[in-house]
Structure formats: structure tokens, C-alpha cells
Automatic annotation (TrEMBL):
Protein name as annotated: Potassium transporter TrkA
Gene Ontology molecular function terms on file: monoatomic cation transmembrane transporter activity
Lineage of producing organism: Bacteria, Pseudomonadati, Campylobacterota, Epsilonproteobacteria, Campylobacterales
Pfam families tied to this protein: TrkA_C (PF02080)
Gene source species: Helicobacter brantae
Start and end residues of each RCK C-terminal domain: 135-215
SUPFAM superfamilies linked: TrkA C-terminal domain-like
Gene3D superfamilies: Regulator of K+ conductance, C-terminal domain
Alphabetical GO biological process terms: potassium ion transport
Length: 469
């Protein structure tokens, strides 16, 4: 998580802070320094720290700003004090970007200083109302976020991907700014670290795309959510199945970058089991027991606003609720008779629907769980899925995760999986075909439908991007 420093004063700072608190991104830490105590809210998220003192004090600034900072925002009304604060920040952090909101230029030659001129922004806004007048990017169109410029950090899963390999429906990458040049989009144009993508489209989808592009490696379950949710039902699960599912959930919570684990028990009946579940509660492990005989669909729908990062459930629960789970657009961990802790390798079957679109999430999870990664590519005519494999190969370099490839024209991948004596974690795209009427699967060649019905090994079903769902 990146640390960002904010030195604030005045009305502009007040508006900026208000919007930041309303729409803050939970993967950053914010340090706010201000002389104006009225700017400090009575309640705020725990990743915001507030300090009230004069930021022109070198000693106080030095004692407050500790560790590495990714960026500073300087919003201050007095130009002379602004210059002093800039000098103190630059002395402490010579290589950190400083964004300053100013009424007039600070007159400082610094490539890592980005000045935002308030009069210039206002004049551009006013010019936008003149007929036939060009407007700047941030004032373009509806002004609702349908045009976005996105900086690609070096650790992004979008690095080294060709534009043609990225599904883009309801949004498009129309160009890339690189080395002060605009490169118009082509299918083969490859994204490089520190590129700035010019994207247009549905503002809500662009918001999700932005979070995916700017997220660092090892962030799953982000961008889906931050927490894991385990669902247990005593009416359809045995005690052994419940305990096995619980072990998998605890293992995932320990290994993945999750904040909280929420355990929900439906139809409670066994008092000893209840006691055991209550005994494992902790500050980041929560138990909810439903005594109201609500259905699984009702429970998980109530949980949806909490941003489910990963839902963990038994194959029996999954089979009964496929449609509901698919419509929620969340990743699913489907338990099996094989404990997850015994798995040393992960596997993906090429040929499954839009399999390349889950590559980054699959490699992220495999890296966090420290699993080897195998790809099985089957085609009777040996017309193998080269483009899909190249997507995985390129992303594996970003994650520093070696992958192995098995090619076969004779052994069906489902039979291959059934013959394995080793414990595997399988990644499957959660495609619409999985939830279609089961009788149709026997006439289908869709690997995802057959794979999702297997319960030999644990599986993670990853929703396809919005445009593919």
C-alpha cells in the first residue's frame, strides 16, 4: 500500500479532502497535515491520519513524515508559505512527485513538481462554454469521467500486454502517451511500464479498469473486494465437510491479501460444531449464525454490499446456486475432497472460454499461494491455442512466476485431470455456459462446463470482465 501525504489549507483543500474521503481507495495510506482544525472530520477511515500543526515547521514535518512516500499534494493559499513547504518536502524526499495547487507559479524548475494553476483550470472551464472552442481533456464531453488518462505502474498486470489481448466492451484504449508522443491504438501495440493510457467509455467500467491497471501485484482479492466469505449449511453438509471447508477458508485467509474472514452458518444444529466455530473467532475472523431459516441466496445477497472478494463454498452449495453466484459477479473458491494446503501446483486448461482474460488473477493467486503453474493445451488437430499461451507467458514475467506447458492431441483434458495422482488447484473462467441447463452439457464441447462439475480438486472460478459476462 502506498503512502500519500497531503498538506492542506483553504476552501479548495476542503473540497478536495471531502471528495477524497467519500471516494477513497482503500489500498493507500494518507497522511494529512493542516493548520485548520475544522478540516479534520470527527470520523474517518483508519487508513487516514490527521495532524494539526504549521507545515512550515521543519522539525514537526520531519517527525511526522516517516518512511517512503509515493506522492505529496500541496494545496495552500499563501504562495510564499507554499514555497517554504515545497522546499522542506523536497529536502526530505528528493525523488518524490509533488502536486501543488497554486494561484500563481512557484517559479521552480523541477521535473517532479506538477503545478495545477487554479486560474488556468477556471479559464479552461469557461472557454469550454464558447461555441466551436476546443477543450482540455479534463473538461471534455459530459464531464462524468467518460474520458480517462491512466498511468500504468511498473508492477501492473497490464504491463507487456498487447492491446488486442484486452477485452474492451463499453470502453476502449484509443491511444498511449509514451515519451511525449501519442501512439494510436493497434491490435499489436504493447503496453509498457509508465505508459499513460487514453481510455474512453462507460465511467463505471472505467473506474473498475483504473483499479485493475493501477493495482500492484499480489493484491487479490482486490479489485473484487477485500474480504473472504465462507458459507456453511448444516442441512446439506456433514460435519466433516464443514470442518474441511473451514480449514480451506482459514488457509486462504492466512495466505491471501485479505482483510477479514466472514463465516456464515445456515441451519445450525450441532452444538459442539457451534462451539468450535465460536472458538476460532478473532479480530479479523467473524462468525454469523443464521437462526431465521433464510436461504443461501438471501444471505449472500445481503452480503453483496460488503464487497465479497472471494466466496468459499462446498460443491453442493455451488451446484444449487450457480445462477445466483454468476449474477453476483464474484470469484468463487469451490472446495473439494482434497484439502487446499496439500496442493503444490495450479493448472489451467487452454481452450476454455476466454481463458486469457483470467490470466492475471490466476497468476496473482498462484503467486500468493506459492504454487507451481501448469497449462494443459489439448487439440485433436494440434491447432494449439498459441495466443492464449502467449498471454500467460507474458504475464508470468510480470509476476516472476515460471509456467510449464503440456501439449496433447490424444488425451482429453478432463480425462487428464481425472488421472492425476497429485493435488491441484484448478482455475476456471466463470462463464455463462456453466449456469446453463445441465442436460445440455453432454452435447457441449465447453471445457468450463465439464470442469465445474468435477469435485476431485479445489477450484477457483473467476468472473470474466464485465463486457464478457
Amino acid at each position: 500500500m502506498k503512502k500519500i501525504g497531503l498538506i492542506l489549507e483553504g476552501k479548495t483543500a476542503e473540497y478536495f479532502l471531502s471528495h477524497l474521503l467519500e471516494q477513497y481507495h482503500s489500498s493507500h495510506y494518507y497522511t494529512i497535515i493542516t493548520q485548520e482544525s475544522e478540516l479534520i472530520p470527527s470520523t474517518h477511515p483508519n487508513n487516514f491520519s490527521f495532524f494539526c500543526f504549521d507545515p512550515t515547521s521543519n522539525s514537526k514535518l520531519r517527525n511526522t513524515l516517516t518512511g517512503d512516500y509515493h506522492q505529496f499534494f500541496l494545496i495552500h493559499q499563501d504562495i510564499e508559505e507554499c514555497k517554504i513547504i515545497y522546499s522542506l518536502l523536497r529536502a526530505l524526499y528528493p525523488q518524490t512527485l509533488i502536486v501543488a495547487s497554486v494561484k500563481e507559479s512557484l517559479g521552480i524548475d523541477d521535473d517532479l513538481l506538477q503545478e495545477i494553476s487554479i486560474p488556468l483550470v477556471m479559464s479552461n472551464k469557461l472557454l469550454g462554454y464558447l461555441p466551436n472552442s476546443p477543450v482540455t481533456l479534463h473538461d471534455f464531453g459530459l464531464g462524468e469521467g467518460e474520458v480517462m488518462e491512466i498511468l500504468v505502474p511498473s508492477g501492473s498486470v497490464y504491463c507487456y500486454r498487447q492491446l488486442g489481448s484486452i477485452a474492451q466492451k463499453d470502453w476502449k484504449i484509443v491511444g498511449i502517451y509514451r515519451h511525449n508522443q501519442l501512439l494510436l491504438s493497434t491490435y499489436s501495440l504493447t503496453i509498457q511500464p509508465n505508459d499513460r493510457l487514453l481510455a474512453i467509455g462507460n465511467p463505471k467500467i472505467l473506474g473498475n479498469v483504473y483499479r485493475q491497471i493501477t493495482s500492484s501485484l499480489g493484491q487479490f482479492p482486490i479489485p473484487f473486494g477485500k474480504d473472504l466469505f465462507l458459507y456453511l449449511d448444516e442441512e446439506i453438509l456433514s460435519e466433516n465437510e464443514i470442518l474441511r471447508d473451514l480449514d480451506d477458508a482459514l488457509f486462504l485467509h492466512q495466505k491471501l491479501n485479505s482483510n477479514q474472514l466472514y463465516i456464515t452458518l445456515l441451519n445450525p444444529a450441532n452444538f459442539e460444531l457451534l462451539s468450535h466455530l465460536k472458538s476460532i473467532q478473532a479480530p479479523n475472523i467473524h462468525l454469523y449464525i443464521d437462526y431465521q431459516k433464510r436461504t443461501f441466496e438471501e444471505i449472500i445477497t445481503l452480503d453483496k454490499p460488503k464487497k465479497i472478494g472471494l466466496a468459499i463454498l462446498n460443491p453442493k452449495l455451488f451446484a444449487l446456486n450457480k445462477k445466483t453466484l454468476f449474477e453476483l459477479f464474484i470469484p468463487i473458491f469451490k472446495t473439494s475432497q482434497t484439502p487446499l494446503c496439500e496442493c503444490k501446483e495450479a493448472i489451467t486448461l487452454l481452450g476454455e472460454e476466454k481463458i486469457e482474460n483470467i490470466a492475471s488473477v490466476s497468476l496473482d493467486i498462484a503467486s500468493q499461494l506459492n504454487l507451481g503453474f501448469e497449462i494443459y493445451d489439448y487439440d485433436v488437430d494440434e491447432n494449439y491455442h498459441t495466443e492464449s499461451f502467449e498471454s500467460y507467458k507474458t504475464l508470468s514475467q510480470v509476476f516472476n512466476k515460471p509456467i510449464s506447458l503440456t501439449l496433447s492431441s490424444t488425451k482429453n483434458p478432463i480425462i487428464f485431470l481425472q488421472e492425476q495422482k497429485r493435488a491441484l488447484l484448478q482455475f476456471i473462467p466463470f462463464s455463462p455456459s456453466i449456469v446453463k441447463y445441465a442436460l445440455g452439457k453432454f452435447a457441449s464441447t465447453d471445457l468450463s462446463r465439464y470442469s465445474a462439475d468435477m469435485n476431485l480438486y479445489p477450484q477457483i472460478l473467476i468472473p470474466l470482465p464485465y463486457e464478457n459476462a
